[in-house]
Amino acid sequence: MKKILYSILTLLFVTPFFAQQNQLWRGFFSFAEVTDIAATPIRVFATSENAVFSKSLVTNELKTTTSINGFKAETITAMHFSVTKNKTFVGNDNGLLLVVNEADGSVFNVVDIVNKPSIAPNKKKINHLYENDGKLYISCDFGLCVYNLATMEFGDTYFIGPTGQEVEVLQTTVFNGMIYAVTRNNGIRRASVANPNLIDFSQWQEFDAGSWLGAVTFNNRLLLANANNRMYSYTNAAIQEVYTTMQQAVDFKSFNDRLVYTSANHVYVFDPAMVLLAHITQIPDVVTTFTCGVATGNNIFIGTKDKGMYSTTTTNSMVFQNNTPDGPVRNKIFSLKKAPSALWVLYGDYDRYYNPYPLDAYGISKFKESSGWSLIPYEELSGAKSLSRVTLNPNNENQVFVSSYYSGLLKIENDAVVTLYTQLNTGNNGLESLPPPNNNDIRINGPAFDRRGNLWMTNSLVAKGLKVLRADNQWVSYDLSNATVQPETNSYGPLIVDKNNTKWIPSVSNGLIGFNENYGNKFITIKSGTDSGNLADNDVRTVAVDTRNQLWIGTNKGLRILPSVDRFLTETSLTTNAIIILEDGLAQELFYQQVILDIAVDGSNNKWLSIAGGGVFQVSPNGQSVLHKFTKENSPLPSNNINDIEIDGVTGEVFFATDKGMVSFQGTATKANENLNNVYVFPNPVRPGFEGDVNISGLIDKANVKITDIEGNLVYETTSQGGTITWDTRAFGKYKVASGVYMIFISSEDGSETKVKKVMVIR
Fold first, then answer.
1. Residue 129 host element (H or E)
2. Rounded to two decimals, what is the model's pTM?
3. Which residues form the PorZ N-terminal beta-propeller domain (predicted)?
4. 31-111 has which CATH code?
């Protein structure tokens, strides 16, 4: 397959067309990192890294706007709510301006700044948004842009440096007919806001050459925040100091009769006479730094770096309320694990060369449909850093093991750490650290249980790189010297265990290692080259066994298939094959030269593949057909970098962990049932206006399904692969069937089991 290229959208982009498709998607976003806040008398708005949320001050209702709603942010850096237009304007670090119509939820992507070819990409960041007289002034790292709120179009761009050069504009405000622009290195510059020729840099004059951070108009005065930790006032006379703070401002804003100065550890709230109403230095029991603040009436709202948005009042600033929507603690998710009743989420990571540095110190998140998100904080994880993978005890969902790519292996029971296994408590045949001086560095990855209850894992950069914690709690190590060159220099991805108890171990430079201790500690290594196994590359990133016992192998340069894992038992060498497809009439290799990060197999034996920077593909069981291709551009995926894929075999829901948040897609491929006792049809009835498919779930594999009208005329027939089939309510895909009751006749492959269901269609 040819390499997939993605281009930036170049037109004003309206996204209500997502609505129908997005009914199949769910979002699981973190709102902990608050980047900006805006207030109205009845609602407060906040932005996180790539989403918007708001709270009603009347009903306390929380509302979120994410990629599920068509809101495709990059990294949010500024926000403004327009009361006159009932629209939220959101600026990003790449110059993208998003406009959310709060009346109907539609989203506009305005890409004029993104597409400015004359400006370097790293200079397009939007720092501040300010509304005045029907115009939105956009402060950027290169200068100032004007956006007309009546026409929803960009106007002029002002380069306001002393000689017309680009300057970093931090904030703007209009005071007494003059627009003031606070710059990073050129002081405050100003010009008449009515001047029709502001595109001429000479019309902008220096107001003050000092080092300034912010400027707001408040109670008929110009209030200024200086880098010297002081606030000043200007009233067309002289600049006068009005207050000394403890730290430099990170946010400075006014709303109605309140002025708020926010620094990393202080929030100051003033009334129109500059009387201090509140000085907040910490939120009880919350360790964080402040990022922004706003006050409306007696209510104070504070954004934090990693704990969300809190509120208090000017009358009792010691009592706080958390106003953050439920979600994981971070958007950058490294790996997932779907348990029958929960979803586990890890944030620790390593790079493509398996380097865990800088080390991550994050907790473990857990999501349950019944109770939402919970967290095992880092402080309760025995100091384990860079947590990489979760595996479940197949006989006890409440017992999980978490590999750390620096600290060893965590054993958790009922959401509490029982043991941190290291080289110190696993004996001579247990875990190993790197040689001194790195003797606290224990790189464990990919724990997986076999059918006998033994837990297998890899231990990178040591000779005995394969470890097992047996069901009797004894540790055993296996030397990989016979399978790989210089195992002390090799790192490994997550391993899997097939039905024969063969372990398949991806390595970063020595291909794929197969091992089975039940066959005389047999090793087979599959590498690149026609005589060595025909892998696309010796850097193997992921492996998966499908329902036909084929081994799918994702490498740094493409995909390979081992026709059967059974071959390991009888052969001394193994050769993999590429999947050849026809594209534009030419034979092409599927995913040729693509970096494959993860492969997951659904209940119908379809494969879901994550392509680095290219989104995710669902392909048919043999790989010959692409069933879905999801990218940030055509779906609610918040990023094209999918780190991990997990599938709920019972419901068919597919979870995607990205570097910008987690979403899920409600697939239809579920695991086959053992009998037909739990067949169900959804939706039933099919009501007018429904445009989706009817799901018939709870099937056994290879069940024959026939759908007829009430008179017995056949309208659809298929054979299940897995536990679910879908019907588009058409007669063999041609025309929509009429209103009426339709009979569903289900039988097993040998006819020993049957079931009859009904579905009503209402047009």
1. strand 126-132
2. 0.88
3. 44-205
4. 2.40.10.480
For the domain spanning 327-484, the CATH number is: 2.130.10.10
Q: What is the mean pLDDT of residues 455-468?
A: 97
**How confident is the model at residue 317, as a pLDDT?**
81
Q: What are the tens digits of pLDDT across the range 68-96?
A: 999 999 999 999 999 999 999 999 999 99
Residue 2 in this model has a pLDDT that exceeds 50: no
Peptide bond before 121: cis, by omega within 30 degrees of 0? no
Measure the CA–CA gap between 160 and 143, rounded to whole angstroms.
Answer: 6
Query: What is the mean predicted confidence (pLDDT) over 211-222?
Result: 96
Q: How far apart are the first and last CA of the chain?
A: 42
Tens of pLDDT along 696-729?
Answer: 988 998 899 999 999 999 999 999 888 888 899 9
Distance of CA 631 to the CA centre of its chain: 13
Cβ–Cβ under 8 Å, residues 205 and 213: no
Q: What is the CA radius of gyration of the chain?
A: 30
The number of residues in the chain equals 763
What is the CB-side half-sphere exposure of residue 464 using CA atoms within 13 A? 14
Phi-psi group of 745: left, alpha or beta (phi > 0 → left; psi -120 to 50 → alpha; rest → beta): beta
Name the DSSP class of 21. H
Q: In this predicted structure, which of 23-27, 234-238, 367-371, 581-585 has the lowest mean pLDDT?
A: 581-585
Whether 636 and 68 have beta carbons less than 8 Å apart is answered as: yes
The CATH code that applies to domain 680-761 is 2.60.40.3110
Mapped onto helix, strand or coil, the DSSP state of residue 19 is: helix
The Cα angle at residue 212 between residues 210 and 213, in degrees rounded to 5: 170
**Contact (Cβ atoms closer than 8 angstroms) between residue 660 and residue 49:** yes
Structure tokens at 487: 């195992």
Tens of pLDDT, residues 175-187 = 999 999 999 999 9
Residue listed under structure tokens 């009998």: 675
Could you tell me if 724 and 652 are in contact, meaning their C-beta atoms sit under 8 angstroms apart? yes
pLDDT surpassing 50 at residue 236 = yes
Report the pLDDT value the prediction gives residue 291, as an integer from 0 to 100.
Answer: 98
For residue 168, give every residue at least 6 positions away whose Cβ sits within 8 Å of its Cβ, in sequence order, or none: 127, 140, 141, 142, 183, 184, 185
Q: Which is nearest to 68 in space by CA: 656, 628, 646?
A: 656
**Concatenated DSSP letters of 699-756:** PPTT-EEEEEETT--EEEEEE-SSSEEEE-SEETTTEEPPSEEEEEEEE-TTSS-EEE
CA–CA separation, 710 and 760 (whole Å):
10
Express as a percent the part of the chain with pLDDT over 90: 86
191/239 Cα distance (integer angstroms): 18
Output the CA–CA distances (angstroms, integers) from residue 588 to 527, 538, 580, 591, 612, in the order listed. Answer: 22, 21, 6, 9, 19
CA neighbor of 91 nearest in space, from 147, 41, 134: 147
CA dihedral 718, 699, 618, 14 (to 10 degrees): 90
Amino acid at 120: A
How far is it, in rounded angstroms, from Cα 721 to Cα 702?
6
Q: What mean pLDDT is predicted for residues 108-121?
A: 94
Distance between CA atoms of 171 and 287, rounded to whole angstroms?
A: 29
Burial 655-686 (b: 16+ CB within 10 A, else e): bbbbbbbbbbbebbbbbbbeebeebebeebeb
Mean pLDDT of the chain: 93
pLDDT digits (tens, 9 = 90+) for 412-433: 999 999 999 999 999 999 999 9
Token pair in block for residue 751: 């006819």
If you write DSSP's letter for every residue of 544-613 in order, what string do you get? Answer: EE-TTSPEEEEETTEEEEES-TTHHHH-SS---BPPEEEETTEEEETTTT--EEEEEE-TTS-EEEEETT
Q: Residue ranges of the domains in the chain? A: 31-111, 327-484, 680-761
The helix/strand/coil state of 122 is helix
For 683, the token pair is 């939706």
Rounded to an integer, what distance in angstroms lies between the CA atom of residue 484 and that of residue 495? 15
